[in-house]
Design brief:
By secondary structure, the protein is of the alpha/beta class. Helix content is about 40%, strand content about 20%. A hairpin with a 4-residue loop joins strand 19 (about 490-500) and strand 20 (about 505).
Length: about 575
């Protein structure tokens, strides 16, 4: 019965896309879905409207309300334009920046968005070609804009595209703005979208913006002399077919690195990502070609960025000279440790500095920060929450770094989203600084573990596609809440945090307390007696439920590293078994 009802609703909704408001190509594609005997595709395309998640609007490209196409993109842009006209009605000229990545249709969606903004009397700065997400954030601040958008689906597979919305501070929108924008978007009918642009209000951003961005990025360096001494360090860099290609090699050279080795097959800009299944540096397979190039060229470092170049992945050589992939927690740990250590050495720590991490990121960065007298704030997953802390403390305290386990880091405050460009510059610089100190990066990482404690982390994503998958994920979260886990890898659960209710339950004291967060979020965390931490959350941008496992122990010396690491790996396996994943 329920399925019949759903099919009737979906069919009625799809038929509204057969009117003259929609172009002929769209109408033909919708009719084809209606005519198909198997209605699965029709249902998936129309059973709901695309919603904002942690990364804005994101979905599979195709016709329908639950797909990314010129009408869902157009509706989002018209809704945003309507909201901007209300919110900034006192301004003579409202301004926005528009960027896009390498994905199929990205340029088309960017140009359509520029037309819609300009048709609404809003000045649109459109980048001449694809550019990294952090540069869009930079340009919004640099040009004094009220908003901006980035056409991208970040690291998602090739079938996806999307739309990130930025506010005047250069950060992705947070409540109440996101909800207000969505309310406006939901009021928009296809007939309301003003597709006919005003070319006088569209300005093309050229390489001048790249130069300004790179000049400012040079200021994040803390040991430029070390780079002068070791600028010949071999660095393999792959943009994974994406936007990093347009700026990262130039930025590294501008900062003094002279031996940048590319991966020609992956310099090919393509929304089909021909050499990888998943264009994500978190995926070891995505970095395999670059690592092979590193081995062939005797390079010391391997860097990779995702298609919109906000995520940064790195590989370093271990004590046997083999390349090992760092996870996002390790990369962030090295960056935070270096920034704090160098600022202390340079006498730049005044007591007003702070760092930020997300609640699913390793607590080790917190220990490093606090042991050096730097306060670290915790926030929700998604860089917009890190930027929200920055906005709150602007002018009062000094941001010196923040990040998340999902390969995102931001070293500077003139950008308000994760920035792989500054991360690449700093990471190369850290390798040079470690050389000055007679160490490899691998030895430096081990020494951090010896000084501050050892942790090992693993992320596990369980993919559940489509409508039925979303229901399964919901059921899994419900089950974890109603039947809380009592023990993980033989250690008793002593604390449970539920960010839906904003309640924490201390099982040792049998007490409950409130979690101080700006809003609720569908995240559940378990902490055990021996320091193990598990976080569970549905992804805001992909059809996945994510598990983040973190185990802790002591490391007495570098010599003990392999044994301690192996024991932690075994423990993580047991935790995953106990979780049923």
């Amino acid at each position: 019965m329920e399925n019949n009802e759903l099919l009737m609703q979906v069919t009625a909704k799809a038929k509204t896309w057969l009117t003259e408001k929609y172009d002929a190509e769209t109408r033909a594609q919708v009719q084809a879905l209606l005519d198909k005997e198997d209605k699965t595709e029709l249902i998936e395309a129309f059973y709901k409207d695309l919603e904002f998640g942690t990364g804005g609007l994101r979905g599979i490209m195709g016709v329908g309300t639950n797909r990314v196409n010129i009408y869902t993109i157009g509706g989002a842009t018209q809704g945003l334009a309507n909201y901007l006209l209300k919110e900034f009605s006192a301004l003579e000229q409202i301004k926005v920046v528009i960027g896009h990545d390498c994905r199929n249709n990205s340029r088309k969606y960017a140009e359509i968005s520029a037309d819609i903004f300009s048709a609404n009397g809003i000045k649109a700065y459109l980048f001449e070609d694809l550019r990294p997400t952090p540069e869009v954030s930079y340009a919004i601040r640099k040009l004094g804009c009220q908003s901006g958008i980035m056409i991208t689906a970040s690291h998602n597979p090739k079938a996806y595209n999307g739309y990130k919305v930025y506010w005047e501070d250069g950060a992705q929108v947070i409540p109440p703005y996101d909800k207000n924008i969505i309310a406006e978007v939901n009021r928009v009918n296809a007939a309301d979208i003003k597709f006919d642009g005003n070319k006088e209000l569209i300005e093309i951003l050229s390489k001048d913006m790249d130069k300004a961005y790179i000049d400012d990025l040079k200021t994040v360096m803390l040991t430029p002399d070390a780079v002068k001494r070791h600028g010949k360090i071999g660095i393999v860099y792959t943009p994974l077919h994406g936007t990093g290609f347009t700026i990262i090699p130039d930025a590294l050279k501008a900062c003094g690195f002279t031996n940048i080795i590319n991966v020609p097959e992956q310099d090919v800009l393509s929304g089909d990502f021909p050499t990888v299944v998943s264009p994500n540096p978190e995926d070891p397979a995505a970095m395999a070609m670059a690592v092979k190039k590193g081995e062939e060229t005797n390079a010391e470092l391997v860097f990779a960025t995702d298609p919109d170049a906000d995520r940064f992945g790195a590989a370093i050589r271990n004590d046997k000279g083999e390349f090992i992939l760092l996870n996002g927690n390790q990369t962030m740990l090295i960056l935070i440790y270096y920034i704090i250590t160098r600022k202390r050495e340079l006498g730049q720590l005044t007591g007003k500095e702070y760092t930020v991490r997300t609640i699913v990121t390793s607590a080790l960065t917190q220990i490093v920060s606090e042991k050096n007298g730097v306060e670290m704030f915790e926030c929700y997953t998604g860089f917009k929450w890190i930027a929200s802390v920055m906005r709150e403390l602007e002018g009062k305290r000094q941001y010196i770094g923040g990040g998340e386990e999902s390969y995102g880091f931001l070293a500077e405050d003139f950008v308000r989203d994760k920035d792989s460009v500054s991360a690449a510059i700093l990471f190369g610089e850290i390798a040079a600084w470690a050389k000055d100190n007679g160490k490899t990066l691998y030895e430096m990482l081990q020494d951090i573990y010896v000084e501050y404690g050892f942790s090992k982390e693993k992320g596990v994503s369980v993919v559940k596609e489509g409508r039925s998958g979303a229901e399964e994920i919901e059921a899994m979260m419900k089950n974890f809440r109603e039947n809380p886990i009592k023990e993980l890898a033989g250690s008793k659960v002593t604390l449970i945090k539920d960010y839906v209710t904003l309640k924490a339950t201390d099982l040792n004291l049998n007490e409950e307390y409130t979690l101080e967060m700006p809003t609720t979020s569908n995240v559940l965390q378990y902490f055990t007696q021996d320091g193990t931490k598990v976080s569970i959350r549905p992804s805001g941008t992909e059809p996945k439920i994510k598990f983040y496992v973190e185990v802790h122990s002591k490391l007495k010396s570098r010599e003990d590293y392999n044994a301690v690491d192996a024991a932690a790996e075994k423990k993580i396996e047991q935790v995953c078994k106990d979780l049923g994943i």
